[in-house]
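#random but structural
TW: two for the price of one
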Amino acid sequence: MKNSVILKSFSGGICVILDDTIPFEELLNDIASKFKEADNFFRDAAVAISLEGRELTEIQEREILDAITQNSRLNVLCLIGKDEEKNANFLGIQNSMVFQKDENCGQFYRGTLKDGQSIETEHSIVILGDVCAGCNIYSSKDIVVIGSLTGAAYAGAGGNNNHFIVALDMNPSSLQIGDLVYNGQPQKSSRWGIKPKTVPKIAYIYNGKIQIQPITNELLDNFTL
């Protein structure tokens, strides 16, 4: 492994400095070993991760995050980069995260996402607030918004179609589950500025397409993924 992976802690996160000279698969194994060795030190801390020292594709970043979470008990909140403003947004979100110690490793975020804030997580997530236009949620599992969803939401971000998105007011700028993108248009207010009555809705995949339906007892009784 010989210094191919160096870990440095900072407030709220871990900086992972990567060797840029060895093959990626070898580096991935070194990352897994490094975090396995450090598991008793970090334990189940909730952290942001910064990857430095090497240019990475989005797929490689996800593979590194998988290696970290599979070889440690860390709760990885998000991946941050060189954009200081975005990093501040991520870390601000991190300070409001509360992890539920259940078998599904679900997360809660209390507050409204605004001003371009984003959350990216490997877990299911419940947002106790609104997700405003220009904001983004990426989850490898399910997304529940206890508020208005007018930003972008992507569930099953690892390519798994067996996930869903729920919102009390469902009007996303864009919505994706697994490999499928919802092609519907956001609802608009009437010419008098009156919005249609809002009801809780769920987005899920049925017959190869994303469906958005009001949540009813009948739907929940028959809902399967």
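TW: number two ↓
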Amino acid sequence: MKDKSGLIESGKIVNTHGIKGEVRLQPWADSPGFLTGFENIYIDGKPVKVLAANVHKGCVTATLEGVNDIDSAIKLKGKVFCINKSDAILEEGKFFIADLIGLQAIDADTSESLGHVADILTLPSNNVYVLKGEREILVPAVPEFIIETDLSKGFVRVHLIEGL
């Protein structure tokens, strides 16, 4: 979810880990390792310093400043946490899902509007863009179909094949 403060929802604290206050973070990212590089996460809009973070069984175990025992860790269970977008470094061609939602979708072959990106399905093989206009179109988020993404101009150019 996009926020005017620059914070973006990035996962959920799903459990404690051990008895010394570590928490288990379920990442909402392509890779759990992405979340291990942040100095701070934001819980309830407030920054919390990350003292240590490691990938463990598809999640991230983290030691947070001020969370020193299981009692304080359990109080965080179920909370959604955010990162500050300005702290993130994305690889070339990678985007935050929240930034893609709402972009105008343009047919690369005809330059006609197909509507807008209404949702992104995160599937095991690849993401799928849900375009909504006169009809709903599902487009695999792979280079053969996603020709160009321009956040500054607010569009994504897609190549459609028969059957999409």
